[in-house]
Specification:
This protein folds into 2 domains: 6-134, Impact, N-terminal domain (Ribosomal Protein S5, domain 2, 2-Layer Sandwich), CATH 3.30.230.30; 137-206, Alpha-Beta Plaits. 28% of the residues lie in helices and 35% in strands. The protein is built from 5 helices and 12 strands. The strands form 3 sheets. A 5-stranded antiparallel sheet has the order 2-3-6-4-5, sandwiched between helices. The radius of gyration is 22 Å and the shape is elongated. The two termini are 19 Å apart. The mean pLDDT is 91.
Length: 210
């Protein structure tokens, strides 16, 4: 069970540094999926179409146990860009984040060690403007109830930032929901006040709700 919060970016932010005439523009942005991360990358490519490189790394999910991570050197020598960018994300313990460093080549080669330091420095610099917030742990549950009790449960979920992921209607109703982990006991107490509503087997824990 994941029983702690982790930090995530609130919104995209950007910084720029210059190293030996090369300009490095770093952007840290929230991303809760691979698709969102790559959408951020597409936006940077469109915004800076003449840049030499758009190197990046993302970490989706809690940094202690990320659901997925990826990185790219985007044409820089292997291991000199994507890895140092990812190392910064991991060192800062930031989750659900995409970090892109765009480079405009200034004509002076930095060498492998110089590139590693430059990309790490650019990635570090963006945290000077970054606004972070805690994402609270969530839990995924299934609730069985009658058709009559379904509206009451939906109102409870709306009031507690709950998300209904799926609903199955048969002789009764089964709702697959995601709630804040801290509200688990409150949900059980609320269901106890209904005549025919209960939790089914718990699925798993996650961290994806704003």
């Amino acid at each position: 069970m994941i029983d702690h919060a982790y930090q995530v970016p609130v919104a995209a932010c950007e910084t720029s540094i210059e190293i030996k005439k090369s300009r490095f523009i770093a952007c840290l942005a929230p991303a809760q999926s691979r698709e969102q991360a790559l959408a951020q990358l597409a936006d940077r490519r469109e915004r800076f179409p003449d840049a030499r490189h758009h190197c990046w790394a993302y970490q989706i999910g809690p940094p202690q146990q990320p659901g997925t991570i990826a990185m790219s050197d985007d044409g820089e020598p292997s291991g000199t860009a994507g890895k140092p960018i990812l190392n910064v994300l991991q060192h800062k313990a930031i989750g659900d984040a995409m970090l892109i460093v765009t480079r405009y080549f200034g004509g002076i080669k930095l060498g492998a060690g110089g590139l590693v330091r430059a990309y790490a420095s650019a990635a570090q610099a963006v945290f000077e403007c970054a606004k972070l917030t805690d994402r609270e742990p969530l839990t995924e549950l299934q609730i069985a109830c009658t058709f009559k009790d379904e509206p009451t449960i939906r109102r409870w979920l709306d009031a507690h930032q709950g998300i209904i992921r799926n609903v199955n209607y048969h002789e009764s109703v089964v709702l697959a929901v995601t709630i804040l982990q801290k509200d688990h006991s409150a949900l059980i107490a609320s269901l106890a006040n209904l005549k025919q509503a209960s939790l089914l087997e718990q699925e798993n824990d996650t961290n994806a709700l704003d």
